[in-house]
Amino acid sequence: MHVDGYRVRSVTTEDAPDVQALLELDPESFELLEGAPLRPDEALEVITELPPGVPPERKYNFLLEPEAPAPGQPGGAAALLSLVEGFPDDGTWYLGLIIVAPAARGQGLGTRAIEALCAHARERGGTALRLAVVPTNTGARRLYDRLGFGFVARRLRESRTGVLGAVDVLERRLGQLG
User: Fold this and answer.
1) What's the rounded mean pLDDT across residues 20-46?
2) What distance in Å separates the CA atoms of residue 95 and residue 59, rounded to the nearest whole number?
3) Could you tell me which CATH class the domain 6-127 is placed in?
4) β-sheet with 164-173: strand ranges across
5) How many angstroms separate the CA atoms of 62 and 146, rounded?
6) How far is C-alpha 74 from the chain's CA centre?
7) R_g of the chain computed on alpha carbons
8) Does pLDDT of 48 surpass 90?
9) Domain boundaries, the chain
10) Residues 97-117 as b or e (16 or more Cβ within 10 Å = b)
11) How far apart are CA 169 and CA 118, in angstroms?
């Protein structure tokens, strides 16, 4: 996978401290996304969590790190992408989580990262990219609408604390490489 201006590296459980540091940059956003407060071991959960019946080799986590951080910008990861191949069906890839560091927002990184994920999935035979977004996350919803994601369904999702909350399931067809 390639995102201009960023080094993209695959994440393993050994990278949990880097992932945790990124999550801790904006715990309020994480709580909005996940419906529960950030835990001290959240990174390990993000890295290893899988939908039922999906084998671990179909889970991909990527950290995006600036190739050359701007003067005055903090180093470290600018974004985390968590992706599952073949869920909920063989041709669909599922974006389980995208987190962009506060200092990297508003610069088009989310757009470029999602476009890179679409290309990554399409190159591997994927026909669609699916995700879920909380209805109150209007900024993310605007981004997904602009990038061609369409509404599939509204579902209830239970947080780790047992609270039920609505999510909108969105999907973008990937088409053929041109």
Assistant:
1) 87
2) 10
3) alpha beta
4) 6-10, 59-66, 79-85, 92-100, 128-133, 164-173, 150-158
5) 23
6) 21
7) 16
8) yes
9) 6-127
10) bbbbbebbeeeebbebbbebb
11) 16
Cβ partners under 8 Å of residue 26, min gap 6: 99, 101, 102
The count of other CB atoms within 10 Å of the CB of residue 135 is 11
pLDDT tens per residue across span 49-103? 999 899 999 999 999 999 876 655 556 899 999 999 999 999 999 999 999 999 8
Contact 9, 65 (CB under 8 A): yes
| 23 backbone dihedrals φ, ψ, rounded to 5° | -60, -35
Omega of the bond prior to 88 within 30 degrees of 0, cis? yes
Quick check: 178 pLDDT over 70?
no
Confidence check: pLDDT of 159 > 80:
no
Task: Answer for the pair 106, 145: CB distance below 8 angstroms, yes or no.
Answer: no
- Give tens-digit pLDDT for 112-136: 999 999 999 999 999 999 999 999 8
Q: What is the mean pLDDT of the chain?
A: 90
β-strands 92-100, 79-85 pairing: antiparallel
Is-contact 23 42, C-beta < 8 A? yes
